Amino acid sequence: MRKFLIIMVLTAVALPVIGFAAFGPPDDLEFSEYASPPSAAVQEDWFGHIGVKVLLLGASLLVAVFLSKRFFTNRRLRKVYLLINVAVLGFAVGGMLCPISAIQNIFIKYNTVYLLLFFLPILSTLLFGRVYCGWVCPFGAVSEWLFVKKWAVRIPKKWDRFLKWTRWGILVFLVGRILLGAHVADDWTPFKNLFTFGGSLTNWILTGVFLGLSIISYRPFCKYLCPYGAIMSLVSRFSFRKVSLDDSCVRCGQCEKQCGMQALEIPGDPDGDCILCGECASSCRRSSIAVSPKSQQKCSQTKEILKEEKI
Q1: How crowded is residue 213: how many other Cβ atoms within 10 Å of its Cβ?
Q2: CA triplet 229, 230, 233: central angle to 5 degrees?
Q3: Which pTM value belongs to this model?
Q4: Number of folded domains in the chain?
Q5: For residue range 25-68, what is the model confidence (pLDDT) as tens digits?
Q6: Domain containing 269: what range?
Q7: 134 shares its domain with 255
């Protein structure tokens, strides 16, 4: 754990410095053919602003890694930390990272420091699991805070698996339209207008729809429509740190019922949609579930039995 934390600290400090030296700020802040060239003063202001964003994101991820390790089953603490990130990464910096714009901007701002902003959560997911999605992302945090568990409508597994493919379709569509020369569509992300205090009519309609859906469904945009989340779910499958199950499990199925992301096809053995929220572990009366490095995870007889039962 200490080695991973050291790696993240060095990464959070070194990457901005390396990126600034190698790429510098972009020549065109708006990335539009209609935008006029910015002045040196504007470039310097943008230069400092993106640096602050990278450092804030790196710091938020570091704290999230520590909290998810030491207080994995503390639901209240995670909720409070999500609220902090809504205030800082949401309202203070205008919503970071916007999951719709982020996918498109990577093809436009590939030669700028924005590249670091895009890949830092992906790197953290590879090393520590989806702490960004479960502990940091302000968009997912707003949706989760709205969720009322007693009013929850749970999607059947068959439909859940089918709907999760939708985010991959959105990912392909966004990449395709940018490669064909279209402008960045930045008003398709629910809740973004809440952070920017503005937005188009489309954005307000989407926000209203997902405000309602989030009350009865756990993170509906994150589960079924988020293209950035699709990438994270793929990377998460190869993460060095995952939720694990030991032999004290009695196969009660409580963890599967409590998983809002419906990531537990097999109890205690989550797929790439696990966001390390800790709901499964906190609901386990026998403390059979924990988050641990991949090298320490047990290939238990219980898990093999559960797999056979699913088959």
Answers
A1: 18
A2: 85
A3: 0.80
A4: 2
A5: 443 333 333 333 444 443 334 434 777 888 889 999 999 999 99
A6: 241-310
A7: no
